[in-house]
Design goal:
Elements: E1 2-7, E2 12-19, E3 24-32, H1 37-52, E4 61-65, H2 71-88, E5 92-95, H3 97-106, E6 114-121, E7 124-130, E8 136-144, H4 145-150, E9 158-161, H5 164-170, E10 180-183, H6 189-198, H7 223-230
Helix pairs in contact: 1-2, 3-6
């Protein structure tokens, strides 16, 4: 199976092509960035596909991270995945950013629980907790940092994600500390591809996975409408 994986959910733009039969990535590229995903993604995908020496019609599916993450970044990646899937006549599958973070650790066959966490700002995090074998202990949710730490009741966890250090710095001294702290700006694009290969397109659609509403909210009265009403 040939998988094109895309990630623009957080502070990176990444793409990779996985050949599951060969058990390896044929090509991959990642650029760390806070902005500019829209301009960087399609040229990056073109370079990765050229490096893998594949036409888009040779792909079996396209995998993309669907959140939690930046609302703008998610729209860029998901739109690209859907568009390419439609043009190539292939399915697009969506993977949560939290599961992609956790997969890196679960894949190491460690027994400790894995707590993946993403900075949601305003003293909150998106997080989930899975066991060492990947089974779910705490479903993805958004919570205050203190609430997230309180939810970790399954033994000393392995923290991973761009909020791993944020949690570690607030960890109470009377609770068993994390066994490891993996600060990562974005998930490993290779694991996004492997998760995409295993996902069922019917139950893992390429659509945004939001755990909270956007910080920016539209004005109650649009400016132009307000001007028209007073003119």
């Amino acid at each position: 199976m040939l998988i094109l994986a895309i990630d623009t959910a957080l502070e990176a733009c990444a793409a990779a092509v996985l050949d599951t039969d060969a058990g390896r990535l044929l090509a991959q590229e990642q650029l760390l960035m806070k902005r500019g995903h829209a301009e960087a993604l399609m040229p990056m995908i073109a370079r990765v596909m050229q490096s893998a020496d594949l036409a888009f019609t040779a792909l079996d599916r396209i995998a993309v991270t669907v959140g939690p993450g930046s609302f703008t970044g998610l729209r860029v990646g998901i739109s690209a995945a859907r568009g390419l899937a439609l043009a190539a006549g292939r399915p697009a599958v969506g993977l949560t950013t939290l599961s992609a973070y956790a997969a890196t650790i679960v894949g190491q066959s460690k027994s400790s629980p894995v707590m993946s966490a993403i900075d949601a700002r305003h003293d909150h995090v998106y997080f989930q907790i899975v066991s060492g074998d990947g089974s779910q202990l705490v479903r993805p949710r958004v919570a205050s940092i203190d609430e997230a730490i309180a939810a970790s009741q399954f033994g000393a966890p392995h923290l991973v994600g761009n909020a791993a250090k944020i949690l570690a710095d607030r960890w109470p001294k009377d609770i068993e500390p994390p066994i490891a702290i993996d600060m990562q700006a974005a998930p490993d694009i290779g694991w996004v591809a492997w998760l995409g290969a295993a996902a069922d397109p019917e139950t893992n659609p390429a659509r945004p996975f939001y755990l909270k509403a956007p910080d920016a909210k539209p004005a109650a009265t649009p400016p132009l409408a307000a001007q028209a009403a007073t003119s």
